[in-house]
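Notes from the 1:1 (GR / supervisor)

We went over the backlog. Supervisor wanted to see one worked example end to end before approving the batch request, so GR pasted a single chain during the call. The sequence is below; no edits were made to it. Supervisor asked that the structure be written out right there so they could see what the output format looks like.
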Amino acid sequence: MRFFSKITVICNCCFILSVVFWYIEMQKQKHGDGNLAIPLPWLENTLVILGYGAIIVNALFLILYFIFSSFKMKTAIPRWMIIFNIIIFCCQVYFHFIFK
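Structure output shown during the call:
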């Protein structure tokens, strides 16, 4: 569970970066500039794929964590990581289903 929590945090950080890149791309399109946000498109594409898939990984992590905590199983996951994942999950739901 600890390893899965670390993967979830990495995917959530990629989600934050992909939203930043999306915002930069939208601002550049408004101004008519066609250049990419970063000059390495393969890196940006990888971050975007990990970022958009993070909602699935995050939902699975939170479901597993709540199942483990409901059965009083011991998980060695820091509390800040759980809070961070819950906050980012709310942002992901808003971004994917309400904002876009």
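Supervisor's comment: The first helix runs from residue 2 to 31.
Batch request approved.
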